[in-house]
Amino acid sequence: MKSGLVLEGGAMRGLFTAGVLDAWMEAGIVFDGAVGVSAGACFGCNYKSRQPGRVIRYNRRFAKDARYCSWWSLFRTGNLFNEDFCYRELPLELDPFDGATYAANPMEFHLSVTDCETGKAVYRRIDRADEEAFRWIQASASMPLVSRPVEIAGRFYLDGGLSDGIPLAYFERLGYDRNVVVTTRPHGYRKFRSWKLKLLKPLLGKYPAVHEALSTRHEWYNATLAYIDERVAAGAALLVCPDEPLPIKRVCHDPEVMQRVYDIGREKGASATESVRRFLNGDSPLRFADLREP
Fold first, then answer.
1. How many Å apart are CA 23 and CA 268, to the nearest integer?
2. Comparing C-alpha atoms, which of 64, 175, 63, 53 is closest to residue 110?
């Protein structure tokens, strides 16, 4: 049996995931591998480096810092989340990422990005916390229009959530047969086609495949949610998600709102800990309903 952790993105909704993961790290829950998308990649990599508390710490510390996330950064650099600050200065100097522990931890860590030319998902296993690794993490979280495509080895990539927002099927193909899926939307959420697509088309003229991916995103995303429900019903997956819509927008500069969402995640993670342990041990089949608050 091979245990996996599948982490959805959602920008600042990912603070819910950070809270869940911190509760599980502190409880000593171990997975054979994890795959993260967008914020799920940015925050989830801390599970492999064994750094509970790091995500909420640096988000609170730099919530109002224009170097971290601001319209000033977008105007000046083309990235709402400043590339140099977020993916060099912060992890290397200001709140160091533990690359040694990350590399030594046998847990695999994967992420997904979207290829700008094809509009398809590309998956990458990240074994070391080096400059290239941070480029892949940046690409996974680079939202269209507020981020420049990230160039790696001559190809350009954007947010993995455009093509495979919850890569459970990918992990199953790798042999992970017992997966815990953490999403940042409540169970039952469904995505609809956005009215903004017509406005985005001319802005994405250089990357028509990205626009096509956005045009069909609601279809494959909802199909993925249905697939997760099937795997949960079959006892092959366990879903952990917020009980209600999270009280935060995709971008947030309020440390107290960030803390609230993180705390919601910690509470959910703590309440699900024993159920996750039983699931990973194969002791008994579990359903999503088993994790709902009484």
1. 9
2. 175
Alpha helices, DSSP H, located in the chain: 14-26, 39-48, 54-61, 71-77, 83-84, 99-104, 131-140, 168-173, 197-203, 208-233, 255-281
Other beta carbons less than 10 A from residue 81's beta carbon: 23
Per-residue pLDDT band at 203 (split at 50, 70, 90): low
In angstroms, rounded to a whole number, what is the distance separating the alpha carbons of residues 142 and 160? 8
Q: Quote the tokens at residue 147.
A: 């981020």
Take residue 177 and report the two structure tokens written for it.
């047969």
Query: What single DSSP character describes residue 111?
Result: E
List, for residues 125-158, the tens digit of each pLDDT value: 999 999 999 999 999 999 988 999 999 999 999 9
Identify which of 267, 272, 292, 265 has the alpha carbon closest to the alpha carbon of residue 43.
265
Amino acid at 202: P
Tokens of 87: 């993916």
Beta carbons within 8 Å of 222's beta carbon, 6+ residues apart: 190, 191
**Helix and strand element counts for the chain (H, E):** 11, 8
DSSP 138-183: HHHT--TTSSPPEEETTEEEEEGGGT-SS-HHHHHHTT--EEEEE-
Strands 178-182 and 237-240: parallel
pLDDT in tens, 160-180: 999 999 999 999 999 999 999
